[in-house]
Amino acid sequence: MNVSILVTVIxxxxxxxxxxxxxxxxxxxxxxxxxFIDVLVTPIPVRLQHAVYPIAYGSLYVIFTVxxxxxxxxxxxxNTGIYPGLxxxxxxxxxxxxxxxxxxxxxxxxxxxxxxxxxxxxxxRRCCSSVDHQDEDGLDVNRNQEPDEGGTFYENVGFQNGxxxxxxxxxxxD
Length: 174
Prior knowledge:
Elements lengths: L1 H14 L5 H8 L1 H12 L10 H19 L21 H37 L4 E2 L5 E2 L11 H4 L2 E2 L2 E2 L2 H5 L3
Antiparallel strand pairs: 1-2, 3-4
Helix pairs in contact: 1-5, 4-5
């Protein structure tokens, strides 16, 4: 999700090309929108430490760009930079600044996503739970009730403690 936010912001603010608007939206806006919807409607936890995954992905992408540049790769217009003016190893200072800003942006977007997730959990807790205690996400947990008798949000959708579980195992009386 962090990467789609970053791609959307960078593209629409710095790189927008003259292509048909529907194609433009499909490639550079809808993935971000769908990611936000996913965060809002799924019970999958968002943690601050999850920023490590887009940072690792970005690091691999940077390694790829160095190899691409060193091998003499060019875009269809003959430019050596993947994104001229932003990610072009012919100008290493600008490229390093772009990379550093991107890594900071990933961390900021992870904090925003975590905040949205926490807000969603507060809303779920206030409207959809019966309380015995709270799990590590602050969700109210009542493990003594069957999911169809008012179990927690996670249990009703097949998750316990952020892990997918089989609904039939929740309903078994063993």
